[in-house]
């Protein structure tokens, strides 16, 4: 797998100063946690699930979650489990040499983990791990214990992606204790926890809220405060933190607008005006703004429920040539003592010690998403990755 691997090599060469690296499901956890990108969710009830998974490869998808939880009715769970096992068998038999996306299963109970691993049999080799819902210390530890036991029994490396969506995390009076408990749980199983996912839809539901397509999660103050505290406790750059992924974007069709589009004309050439109009028409301007705010607030990657959201997430994850230049300058060995230097682009100050953690994270992102050429921005990356 590689990001933007679905576009022609000669196009990638034109777009990238440094192309995205190749990785597999067996790559180091540090790399995979950064490489998740837009993680596409799909109900496990889909009758052509195996076919759908293969189809997403041509859309640039590198990670998927097959959901047995909130996306399906309670009565559908047994049938969804049977379908999941059957579809994994189809993939294992029909695509033995194909590099599939990283596949995770979102379960409801800890008991489902060993049961599914056993039922999958040999096709469990296609499984990268499990998504653990409504994660707190008390609720989450049994999931992590079940995952660890299933890993030992199957001989297959399995990762956990806890979803932070419990009301206890949202409510002010219980938030600090809940965050401390979550940290204890994931720290104990650090080698198994690939990333932490934010369940913002559940946060909103606790107050009867739903953000409109022209508002981001950061415009809903109760949600923004939780994101800030999660990053504060669980996303630190001192070696104790985890990758925290951005919240889901719920919209993929135009709604009646109250506010002006949030996508400026200036990055779009006259030839790309149709692309700008299409993004606005499908409420993508709000998504692009939220992805930018995710990055500014320390989140990486995003939960997606529609294939059209994948390319914007990946295009805005590519490291710009300017960011790359700054990061390299900051991390030069001769800068180990600190100091301040003018950026190569002569438009900012790079202070070596305070900016070191940012530079290290930027180069990790550059490895898996690539570095754009000097004259390439997100508009060109979006246009190049669109189908047909």
From TrEMBL:
GO biological process, any: oxaloacetate metabolic process
Cofactor(s) this protein requires: Mg(2+)
InterPro entries: C-C_Bond_Lyase-like, Citrate_lyase_beta/mcl1/mcl2, Pyrv/PenolPyrv_kinase-like_dom, Pyrv_kinase-like_dom_sf
Positions of Mg(2+) binding: 202
Keyword Transmembrane helix tagged: no
Keyword Mitochondrion: no
Name of the protein: ATP/GTP-binding protein
